[in-house]
Every structure is written in C-alpha cells, then in structure tokens.
Amino acid sequence: MDIDVKKIIEELDTDKTAVLESRSAADTAALGQRLGEICAPGQVYTLTGDLGVGKTVFTQGFARGLGVEGPVNSPTFTILQVYEDGRMPFYHFDVYRIADVEEMEEIGYEDCFYGEGVCLIEWANLIEEILPEDSIQVTIEKDLEKGFDYRRIHVKRFSK
After folding, report:
1. pLDDT tens digits for 27-38?
2. SS3 category, 102
3. Nearest alpha carbon to residue 46 among 113, 111, 160, 135
4. Strand partners for 19
5. I need a surface site. Which of 54, 78, 86, 88 has the fewest CB within 10 A?
C-alpha cells in the first residue's frame, strides 16, 4: 500500500471521501501506522466497521505510528485505554458497550478529545452527538467477493 496519507488527510473535507483498498491485515496495519505517524495533538479519529473487519489491527498500526511499544488491545470492557509511551498521549476508546452518552462524561472524555494527545474511538457511530466537528472518520468494510482479507477503507471528515 503505497499512498500519501498526509496528502489525503489534508485534502479531506465533509463532501469528499478517500477510498483505500487493503489486501491484507499488514496493509490495514500499515495504513493505521501512517495515520499515527502524521497525526497531531488534539485530533480525534473515529473508527467504525462490523465485528472482525480489522479495527484492532488498524489501531495497533496507529499506535505503532505514534511510537507506542507495548501491546494494544481493544478496551471493550474498560472503554478507555491510555498509552503514554509514544510521542504524545494516545487515548484509545472502544464505546461498543456504552449504553448512554452520559457514561462518556463520567470517563472525562472532554479531557481526551480536547487535550494534548490524540484519540481513536472504535464504534464512534454510537456517540456521534459528542464528536468534535473536525474528527476524521475511518470506516472499514469487508468485500468477500474480492477475497477474505480484502478491506475497503473510507476516510473522510466528520460532519454533523
């Protein structure tokens, strides 16, 4: 996967979606890593897709791009995992089990969304009403007609 991710992100707006193809888990992780390498403090990335599409693989690549060295897993039961060993704090949310957006307030999401680190939120479609307007949406889809490992990855700016 040889793409200029920085250029893609710079050119995104709410009307334009970049569609990327991944032919393997390694491609999906590499895209995540490139985004992690170019992200800046205060950015929020959302990550959606069905179970088993590669959200965790993408996130592990993203963390690697930030310089996080330890294991990275989805915080499904804890909702938030903070990694501070990279070039900036990495706030990894998995909001699959959120029953109400008020639970995000209890976690103190605003400190993460508007702080000095970067956020990546799995299942972000469940909390759209609190997402910052300039978030970057990443949606991963399978297309089994193109192969078991094939993924179509959509990247666009969030708009309410």
Report:
1. 999 999 999 999
2. helix
3. 135
4. 154
5. 78
- Paired strand residues for 138: 47, 155
Backbone φ and ψ for 24, nearest 5 degrees, come out as -160, 165
Asked if residues 140 and 53 have their Cβ atoms less than 8 Å apart, the reply is yes
Q: What is the DSSP letter of 93?
A: E
Q: Are 131 and 119 in contact (CB under 8 A)?
A: no
Domains of the chain, each with CATH number or no CATH: 5-157 (3.40.50.300)
Q: What is the DSSP letter of 12?
A: -
- Note the residue count of the chain: 160
- Strands of 118-122's sheet, edge to edge? 17-22, 151-157, 136-142, 44-48, 118-122, 90-94, 80-83
Cα separation, 67 vs 144, in Å, equals 33
The helix/strand/coil state of 122 is strand
pLDDT in tens, 45-71: 999 999 889 999 999 999 999 999 989
What is d(CA 142, CA 152) in angstroms, rounded to the nearest whole number? 6
